[in-house]
Amino acid sequence: MKIILIFLFIAPLALSARAEKDFSALDSAASPETKSRFAMLDDVRILANGLLQLGHGLKDFVHKTKGQMNDIFQKLYIFDKSFYELSLQTSEIKEEEELLRQTTARLQINNEEIKNLSQEMNLKIEDLIQNKIQLQEKVWGLEDKVTKLAITQPTVQETNEISSLKAFVERQDNHIKQLLKIVEDQHAQLDKQHNQIMELEDKLNHIELQELAENSFTGEHTEPEATPFFVHNSTAVTYKYEGAAPDCTALYNSGIQTSGTYTIKPNGSEAFDVYCETKFGTSWTVIQNRVDGSLDFNQTWDAYAKGFGDLNEEFWLGLNKTYSITQQGDYILRIELQDWKDNKRYVEYTFDLGGPETDYTLQLSRISGSIPNALPEQTELRFSTADHDMAVINNFNCPENYLGGWWHSECEETNLNGKYVTPRSKGRLDRRKGLYWKPRKGRYYLLKSTKIMIHPTDLKSFD
C-alpha cells in the first residue's frame, strides 16, 4: 500500500517536469502538432492530480479503518475477559453445588443409620418393658408373700429370695433408665442431623433458583386437561345480565356460555361485576388474576375488602364480594398456576370463608391437584394486610417481605398476592421475594401467573 501511494505521488511530478521541458524545447517551433501534444500533456497533468487526490483519500480511509479495527479488538478483549470471569463463577457455583449434594447424601446415609439404630433401641425398650411387666407381676407376688410374712416369720431361704429379687428389679430399672437415656441422645442426634439436612437443602434451593430452568414445573405430573390462562383482550365486551344471577355458574346454565365480564347479584347482596371463565362445561367466578405484574397488590385492608384492578386484566375481586357469593352454598376453590416455562398446574379445595367479623377466616380441604399442597388444611387462616391484624404475622417474627394481603398462618413461603418478580439471567434470586408456590416439604416454584376461581360443589355441570 505504501509503494502505491509513493508511486501515485511521484508520477504526477515527473510527468509535470517532463511536460515543462518539452514545452520549452518546442516553444520556438509552434506547429499544429506541437500544440496538440501540449494539449495531451495538460490532460495527463489533470489525470495525475486526480490520481494524487485519490491516493490521499485512500490513505485517510486506511487510517480510519485501522482505528475501527482497534476499537473492535478492544471490545473483543473486554468480552473475552468478561466471558472468562463468568466461566470461573459458574465453575465455582457448580463445585459448591456438587459439594453440597455430596454432603447431603452423606448426612442422609447417616440419618438412615441413626433411624435404624433408633428402631433397634425401641425394640430393646419394648422387650425391657415386657420384662418390667413380668417383674412387676413378680413384685406383686412378693408383696403377697411379704403380707403373709408380716403374719408369719419368714424363713432364711425366703428372705434371701426376696433380697435377690429386689436386687434384680433394681438392676433392671437402672438398665432401662440407661437405655432411655441412650434413646434420648439418639433422638437429639437425629434432630441435629435433620436440621443440617434442611440447611443444606435450603442452600441447594438457593443455587437452583439462580437458573430459570430450575424454577419450573418440568418433571412433575402434568395436568391432563389443558387450562388456558387469562390473555388480555383489548376488545373485551362487558355484558349485562337481565335478572338476578347469583354467580357465573347460574349465568352459564341460563345460556350465557362465553368467558367475559358480567353482572351478578348474589342472594342478599347488591349487584356487582365479575369475570366469568368458561371451562370444563361450566363457568367459574374468578376472584384473583395475575399475569404480568402490571398491578401492585401491596394494598390496604379496605382495598382487599372492596376489590381492586381491572376485571379484563389483573385484579382482586374483593373479600366482601367473594363472601357474599360463598354464603349461597358450598363452593370449590380452584387455584391455577403457571411457571416461566409456561408449564401449568392446579389444585382444588373445598373451603369455608368467614365474614368480616372473623377477618374472613379461611379453612381448606384439598380434593385434587397436580402439584403438592402449599396451604395449611383444616386450619383457620385469618386474612391480614400490612395495616390490619398484623399480630397474626408478628407472632411468628416474619420478615417484612412476607407481609402482604393473604391468609397467613406462619412464615410460609406461599403468598399469591406477593410482589411480582421477573427472573433475571444474572444475579441471585431471593426466594422470599416474588410469586412462589412452596410446599412444606418440597421445592420452590417461581410463578409467572396465577388465577383463583370458585364454583358451586353441585357438579352436575361437569357430567
How is this structure best described in words?
The protein is α+β, with helices and mostly antiparallel strands and 463 residues long. It is 48% helix and 16% strand. It is built from 7 helices and 12 strands. It has helices at residues 2-25, 32-151, 156-208, 248-253, 301-306, 319-326, 391-394; strands at 260-264, 272-279, 282-290, 308-309, 315-316, 331-339, 344-353, 362-369, 382-384, 406-408, 436-437, 445-456. Strands 1, 2, 3, 4, 5, 6, 7, 8, 11 and 12 form a 10-stranded antiparallel sheet that branches.
Key traits:
12 strands; disordered C terminus; single chain; 463 residues; 10-stranded antiparallel sheet; alpha+beta; two-stranded antiparallel sheet
How would the blueprint of this fold be written?
Blueprint: H1 2-25, H2 32-151, H3 156-208, H4 248-253, E1 260-264, E2 272-279, E3 282-290, H5 301-306, E4 308-309, E5 315-316, H6 319-326, E6 331-339, E7 344-353, E8 362-369, E9 382-384, H7 391-394, E10 406-408, E11 436-437, E12 445-456
Antiparallel strand pairs: 1-2, 2-3, 3-5, 3-12, 4-5, 6-7, 6-12, 7-8, 9-10, 11-12
Helix pairs in contact: 1-2, 2-3
